[in-house]
Amino acid sequence: MRRSLRPDTRQATGSAVATVLLLAILIITPTLTIVADEIPLRLSLPLNDIPAAGITGADAIFRNPAALYVNQSLEIRGYHSFAEGDFSGDNAFSISAGRIGFGYQRLGLDVPNGVSRYDFVVSSRLMKNVYGGISYTYYKTDWQVLDKSHSWNASLLYYLNQYGAISLHATNINKHEFFGEETAVGYTGSIAVRPLDDWLTFGGDYSFYSGQRLRDGSWRLSAYGKVKEGLRAYAGFDNMGTFGVGLEFQFEKSFSGGEGFFDNDASYTRSTIYAGYSVAEREQIIPRGSRVLHIDMSGTIPEQRTTTFLLRKSSETVYERLKRMELALHDPEIKGLLLTINNPRIGWARLKDFRDLCAKFRAAGKKVVAYLGSFSGNGAYYLASVADEIHMLPVDALNLSGIRAEVTFYGNTLDMLNIDPQVERTGPYKTYTNSYTDTTFTEEHREDINRILDDLFDEFVGAIAEGRGMTPDHIRDLIDQGPFTSVQAESLQLVDGRFYPYEWEKKIPDLFGERCGVVSLASYHDAPRHRERFGEAPKIAIVSVAGGITRGASGSNFLDGQTAGASTISSAIRQARKDPAVKAIVLRMNTPGGDAIAGDVIWAEAKEARAEKPVIVSMSDVCASGGYYISAAANEIMLQPTSITGSIGVFGGKADLSGFYRKLGMNTEVIKRGEHSNIASWNSGFSPDERQILQRQITDMYNRFVSVVADGRNLSPDSVYALAAGRTWGGKGALNAGLADSYGSILDAVELARVEANIGEDFEVIQIPERRLLPRILNFPIPGISELIDGDRSSSLASTLKDLVEPLTGLNIWTRSPYDIEIQ
Fold first, then answer.
1. Concatenated DSSP letters for 626-646?
2. Strand, coil or helix: what is 305?
3. Which residues does 247 contact at the CB level (< 8 Å), separation at least 6?
4. How far apart are the C-alpha atoms of 733 and 647, rounded to whole Å?
5. DSSP secondary-structure letter at 118?
6. Taking 90 as the threshold, does the pLDDT of residue 756 lie above it?
7. Chain-centre distance of CA 457, in angstroms?
8. Residue 711: CB partners within 8 Å, gap ≥ 6?
């Protein structure tokens, strides 16, 4: 490991301040108000036995407003409380969403005339693990002394750690008059302890009023625990000898339960039953039976979250989809995978991420079946080959034909237009500019591409051979005979069956068993988990660097495709570095590089973050040139054998359009001050002095690039120069050359970050920054435009042309790889 960590004292300081603050409130507050009358204004039906400090649901509306912040998903509860012989009883409901809540109770068992109680609650996070809440309670009744009575209430909740919590709830802060006298402020202090995570919670509440001696207060001890998945038991007793016992049954997003209460003679007094629904998922008491997970692999799967318009749902990121699949891998109810693969528009490394995870299903004894969409190509078959069985349409083509790289050279075209590209570069392998200047491959250019294709083709052939139980030589021979009709593909054992979609759906019981249902990945755990954990879980931040690296903010539109703006990415890394809850950072890199200065700005921010917490790089399809420059700041670099990386080199220049202007009959006159004020002009070429200036800038940047890599990778500068000069590598070559540390997916990178940060398995992953899409008015009417905006740069012809022209439009220095490898 190559990181240098400084101790972070901010979290400890914040915890100490919060502890002192809360203890001071608990000790001092009871002495603030002394009044004669001690009548409370908090009439309520009895709720299930949970210490107030341990509440995590909508019960917080009535008992601990600060706890409403803990779970912010929509939750609705209904209650009915009744006594022996009187089932009509009391009724109530509560609803919460975000940080606000509302509760209503209709009470009649213990009060005359019937009372309606209304509660309005708002909560907030004050600092890490410290929450505050304010509520307003209003009573409406025919009992005139209580009618229109109201109280302001407030609470504080502090999670000491994941094992303990304390809270203080103050009611009737406004000391509303009752029977013409000012009433007392009521206080409830609560402690909850969770020694076995969510399997057991116990604690107690202690209540007293201002002016009352502490020893004269009342207390109630309670505990609740998990009997089994989806079944919880409650129990509690108080200083009066009364006690209660109850159960709660959970059905994923709905739940129900009840508790019976008894006096000190063990005589039954009353019960409260309740039911509720929450958008957040709980556990499931009733087994759902065997199920098969259906995964639709088609279109683009982005690396980065998007902020969308007009309620358009953002596409799942690569990490989110892989993580949900990983949950299914360990779910005993999921018996296998159904893959429908319709030419996914993702690169080799992302395909490898998904293929490796599917292989783990097979290794775990969970059957994997793939169904290929029409005219499936190399990428689709590469993914499908991991399956136990592959099926396709009866009449179709399997375009298994090998891989290729195409490079278009514009040298003759620019000569015909009298356009002179004037560029300088570092090393013969920095071949981005060859498209401008040459008409065919140079020896080094051809060597570079062959090295990459050799790595990709070896992985491609080896994976198919392993998946289909054939030898690599046999697969190579078959590829040389392709493409194939569906009949040929079946006869050559490249696929196992040919079916129309409706026929294939009918075969699912035969493939997985009669009692296996099918659940789509989109609906499998499609909601956040109901939070039971005390305290905020440590976080790992995934910072996505997707698209060409530019100065300024990141963008996403038709002309640019995706761009990774230095200010956006740097701000995201800085945010993760400064957040004490974030314990490690994963840089998910899918970029061919770009502007050298922008890349250096991002690198500096990543290097500063590495000084405080682990930084892990996860390379996606392409992480080359400026992308590799940034990666050198990390503690560890993970990639796939199919990733494209390296390209340590620099180029820059401009286009001399003076001949083109003359061809068009244009004439431009220039008046200047300063010997080199014309250096960036398109109306002239470089003078010898100006070319020397450009070469010096490029050389300086190249030397810095080499030193950054040497320092970050613990290599000597000479060894980096030997790997540099623009050479581009596949993942296998990069690993052997010491440019990376290990193979792995984004899931593996997150796991490594967790281990390096020394945090447990209970953690949260956040993905930043989010990409902002253009307004929907610009993308929804035109078929295909939305995919171009959401997808990769390689999908956009406009962005390809922009990449070609942009480096010649000024004197910027570029660390950019020429390879956006597409799967054909």
1. HHHHHHTTSSEEEE-TT-EEE
2. coil
3. 227, 231, 232, 233, 234, 257, 258, 259
4. 12
5. E
6. yes
7. 32
8. 632
